Amino acid sequence: MTSPLENRIEQAMAEFERHKASVADFEARVADSRTTVTTKNRALSVTVNAQGELVEVKFPTGAYRTMAPAELAGLLVDAVRDAQLQARQQAAQLLQALLPAGVPVLDMLTGPVDFDATMDEITRVFAEARQPRETRTAGGERRP
Q: Are 48 and 55 in contact (CB under 8 A)?
């Protein structure tokens, strides 16, 4: 017969293994992630990886040949920017699955972040997640 402590240790190890598998799955999905954006006029398409780095530019039609250089350059910049935003959103969705609800993942990935405020928010979310669910109110406060 196993003791309650041994049961808790086994449960903790099983949970750790589940989290480890989730992180490995996240890493694999991010490593394989590519985002492609094609412009409305189909003059070009761009592909970025999960880090938003440009990995491919294609010209599906000959439309680019009749465009002014500045017009083509602007189209390229806009397409890359759109692809990078979509890549960040996809990465945030994948990462959000690993974190408690309420962690501002997309905010952390999209721009200047007040690191201290973000860490305070993450700490608050984790503290709420540790509270027994039946004793929390909708606002996160504990019920007596």
A: yes
**Mind giving me the DSSP string for the chain?**
---HHHHHHHHHHHHHHHHHHHHHHHHHHHHH-EEEEE-TTSS-EEEEETT--EEEEE--SSGGGGS-HHHHHHHHHHHHHHHHHHHHHHHHHHHHTTS-TT--HHHHHHS---HHHHHHHHHHHHHHHHS-GGGB-TTSPBP-
Q: For the whole model, what pTM was predicted? A: 0.61
**What residues have CB less than 8 Å from 60, skipping those under 6 apart?**
38, 42, 43, 44, 45
Could you report the per-residue pLDDT of 84-132, keeping only the tens digit for each? Answer: 999 988 888 888 777 767 666 666 666 666 667 767 777 777 777 767 6
